[in-house]
Write a structure and sequence with these properties.
Elements (H helix, E strand, L loop, with lengths): L19 E5 L6 H13 L3 E6 L6 H16 L4 E5 L5 H4 L3 E5 L1 H11 L4 E5 L4 H10 L3 E4 L11 H14 L4 E5 L2 H10 L3 E4 L1 H4 L5 H11 L8
Parallel strand pairs: 1-2, 1-8, 2-3, 3-4, 4-5, 5-6, 6-7, 7-8
Length: about 220
């Protein structure tokens, strides 16, 4: 599970463990149908967390969707996080929430801490990332697409991940927009690598896709 970090110390130079996978679901409307695909993904690799993106719906419907999927995630020892919806986390039985932007993150802290995980993405400046970590973020995410699908250049994402890994103790989730980005982000120093839409495009190939992504995470020092 993604747990609360210490944020004031630089990371040690000791060999670090291999990164773990962090799965980002597509917007889920039919939780029962999606549970089959999700279970296959979770059985195919070491997953630290699942970020559940909920399709539009009333509160009760969204809570029920999360409750349908939570056993598959939590029984595997992974954390179930809601994309936004901090106010639904407790009622949905989720482990926490992922917020977008420093303002949304700050507003959710009092509601979720200390019992729940609070992660944050959409951090456009280094200052915002540092402020989130100092305020108690359990992780920061870099490289995820915005609402219109835009994201920084991959070189910029790699640079931001490497900077963070070098300086900060708080875990970093790096968003891989394709299979080809997984290994470079792991090498750059990500603690977790997020797999998004491309993971779910072919449910029949999900086991193969997960295995390939997990293979990309193996670092030289952890392969010995």
């Amino acid at each position: 599970m993604i747990s609360r970090p210490q944020t004031s110390r630089p990371k040690q130079a000791d060999p670090r463990p291999a990164p773990r996978l962090y799965l980002v679901t597509p917007p889920v409307a039919d939780a029962q149908a999606f549970s089959v695909t999700l279970a296959a993904a979770l059985a195919a690799g070491d997953v630290a967390a699942v970020l559940l993106c909920l399709a539009e719906g009333d509160e009760r419907t969204q809570i029920n969707r999360a409750k349908t999927l939570s056993p598959a995630v939590q029984d595997k020892g992974a954390a179930l996080l809601l994309d936004g919806h901090a106010d639904l986390v407790a009622r949905a039985g989720a482990d926490g929430a992922h917020l977008t932007g420093i303002a949304e993150f700050t507003a959710a802290l009092e509601l979720l801490k200390p019992e729940r995980i609070v992660g944050v993405g959409g951090l456009t400046t280094r200052h915002d990332a540092m402020a989130a970590a100092e305020a108690g973020a359990d992780y920061v995410m870099f490289g995820e697409p915005g609402a219109a699908g835009e994201r920084p250049s991959f070189d910029a994402i790699e640079e931001r991940v490497a900077w963070w890994a070098e300086v900060f103790e708080a875990p970093c989730v790096a968003y891989a927009a394709s299979d080809e980005e997984v290994a470079p982000l792991a090498k750059a120093g990500a603690d977790f690598v997020a797999l998004g839409d491309w993971l779910w495009r072919d449910p029949q190939a999900i086991v193969e896709t997960m295995a390939r992504a997990a293979g990309h995470l193996r670092l030289p020092e952890s392969a010995a």
